Every structure is written in C-alpha cells, then in structure tokens.
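Researcher: Let's try something more involved. This one mixes different molecule types, so please make sure each is placed in the same coordinate frame as the others.
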Amino acid sequence: MKYLDILLALLKLGVRCDRTVLITTQELGRLLNISQQSASRLLCRLEKEGYIQRESSPIGTKVSLTSKAMGELLEAYKILHKTFTGLQYEMILCGKVFTGLGEGKYYVTLPYYYRMWQEKLGFSPYPGTLNIRLEPEYIRLRKILENIPAIEIKGYSNKLRSYGGVKCFKGEIENIECALLLIERTHYGPDVIEIIAPVCLREKLKLKDGDKVKVRVKL
Amino acid sequence: MKYLDILLALLKLGVRCDRTVLITTQELGRLLNISQQSASRLLCRLEKEGYIQRESSPIGTKVSLTSKAMGELLEAYKILHKTFTGLQYEMILCGKVFTGLGEGKYYVTLPYYYRMWQEKLGFSPYPGTLNIRLEPEYIRLRKILENIPAIEIKGYSNKLRSYGGVKCFKGEIENIECALLLIERTHYGPDVIEIIAPVCLREKLKLKDGDKVKVRVKL
DNA sequence: ATTACTAAAAGACGAGTAA
DNA sequence: TTTACTCGTCTTTTAGTAA
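Model: All components are placed in one shared frame. Result:
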C-alpha cells in the first residue's frame, strides 16, 4: 500500500494495466508536488519493485501498470467501496449468450480440471460452459480481471497433453452461484467470458442465443 | 493525497468521520510497518495537518477522521470507482417519504435561499421539500455526506433574523433532477434528508407517506 | 526537449527513555 | 502499560548537470 498515492496519480494520467501512456517526469512531479528528479527516481523504483512497466526515451517515459499494482489498487478500492457504500464490491459484466463449439464441455469434464473445480470452487459443475460475448464497454473490465488476484488453476504439461491455466472468479448470474473463467489458451477474443455453475444455466434461466445476461463477480 | 495509505489503514481499523476508535501507536506501527515512534509522530502530523481528530492518553489514542480526510478519500474512491467499474460514482440512499410540518416550504421560498437555489443549483425549486426518513443502514452514508465537499450555502445572521447553512448535493430521484439538502439547523434527526426539485415530486411520482424512494446522489 | 546521475541538504527513522 | 521527546543515523530530496 506504500505507493497508493503515486499509482492513483498514474491512474489520473490515464495509465492502466492495458493502456500505456507517455508521461514526462516533469508533469508527474508537478502532479505529486515533487521535483522532476524525484519523479524520475520514483518511476525507476516502481519498475524495480514490479508496479509498472516502463520504457524511457528522450521524449518521455511510456508507463503501464502491472498486475501487482492493479491488485493493490483493488485492495484499496474494496476498503473505500465498503466505506462509501456499505456494500461489498462486485464487478458487474453484461453480455449476450452464444453457442460455442462444444470445447467447453470437453474441458470442464477433463479429470484434471474437474478435480480443480471441486477443490478450488467448491462445486461440481454442470458439464458445459455458458459462453458470453461481452458488450464493448465491459471489455475493459474483463482486462482488469485478467490483472488482479484470483483463484488460479495452474496449467501444466506432460508427455501426453498440456493443460492451459485458468483464472476463476466466484460470482452469481441471476442469483445462481457460478464461476467466471478466464481461460489462458482460448481461441475466443478478449470480449468472451465463460461461466460454469453447478446447474445447467441455459435450462435453469431459459437462455437462448442472443439473450442478455448480467454476471456479478465477487472480488 | 499524501497520506492515503495511512488514512486507509485507519479505515481498516474502523476509524470513520463519525466513529472514534481507540488505537495504540504500536498496532498502527505494526500495520504500516513502521516503529511505534514513527506511528506516534505520524498521528501528531495528521492532526496538525487537519486529517484526524485525536485525544491521546496513557491507554492509547482516540482517533476519528475529519472532513478533510473524508474528502481526500472520496477523491481517491472516485478515481478507483471509475477504473474498476467504468462508471461515475453515485451514492444511493433509500428511505420512506413522510410529511413534515410545512417549514420546508417556508424555508425554500425565503428570498435569500431562493436566490441561492437558482444560483448554486441551477433551478427554481417547487416550493416545498420532500422529506425522507432513511432506512437505518443508510444513516451511515448520510453522515459521510455531512463530511465531504458539497455545494455550500452559507448561513448568516442580521439583526432581523438568522439563516442556517445548507449543504447541497445534486442528484436524481427516479430519474428526475433534484437536490439533496442537509440543513444545518434542523429539528429532524440524522436519519432525515430533504429533497427539492424543479417539480412537485409528490405529484410527479405519485408519492404517499410511507412510500419507499431511492435517491441517487452525484458526487 | 527528455531521463537520470552526483552531491549536499533536508527530512524521516528507530533506539533509548521520560512522563 | 501508554505517548512522545531527543539524538544519532540513514534515507530521501532537490539543485546542478551530463547524456
């Protein structure tokens, strides 16, 4: 939590985990009320300690935030959200249901993953994923999810096959417990999320392709 | 924004603008990874710079946050909220409509205040206030509103009469533009807010006493 | 323009300790 | 037990300046 004020200043300048911004140490210094030299040293240190990615040149420094920074900012956000709303923070994502190619079903039921769902998510999922194509304004949030702490299922390879990693968030979809999966090796773009749940969401919620759904992610 | 990490640590310990907590410099030091001495110095400084109220004794220090601190925390919260939700922050308050004693109408139309509404809120209000008794869980939020920057209408006295100050927040009630008023000299308790709007909200929204309404405050 | 080095000054730190 | 002072040390800062 040591660099919160500085990370916040970077957010103010438009820097994100998925957005690199060219800033000068002078303007950063002005924003933080420190000298250009201190701002320069600060960026060096933030990089060394893993909070930013950085590329300096004679015209300025290109900066983006790392997952470590996003994680700390989220921690701060959670405390503040609790303070200013009295509520636990949930990220809400909206999108439309679509039918995939059936690989979801295949992966969910692979023994390695199936054990992991039970162990790390605490439920045995219905064999299949609900594919959701996010509305454009939510893609930014999905990218944030990629960069904050989550329930991680590590990928691994043996001689026979290799398993990609999966990042999971517990949540709810129309009041039904579910988990949002960010699948490392997916052929879908950054606008797609996959959901698993103990029940068949398509049936339970009577969903057809194109139906709009709202997923609440608990962070 | 300099003491954000420290103010956040205080929030974590349960300190609020309306809640004094007894803490020891030792535990604060442990939380911030600094010595007891530095934590002590820090609290002195926070007090001197107007971020906390403080009362130290041989059993510890009673600490509460000032409006200045709440304002800075809110600034941080707004940036983070924008980052993590993509939305502007709004505080939502819920409560039930009730009928007052008619003083709302009297005050709203007093020439001094009427000029102020027009000047500072940008509309000419319907002559009357909508009184709302907040549900218990929202009283905390009302107290936060009291302690953050707002549109201020200063009170003043002359020989004839004295006018109390009013703190205003712009907002919406069921999609109708309105303003929430926190009236300095009110005989209502901290669970009551008063709303003014360019239209008669009771008529427009067909409200009866006891009806539940939701006010969105834009911060 | 920039970034970022060096050196000297300023400020922050914890140990010891009084109250 | 507390808080919070002094003091010596160490860290951080800025000004000057090189690249």
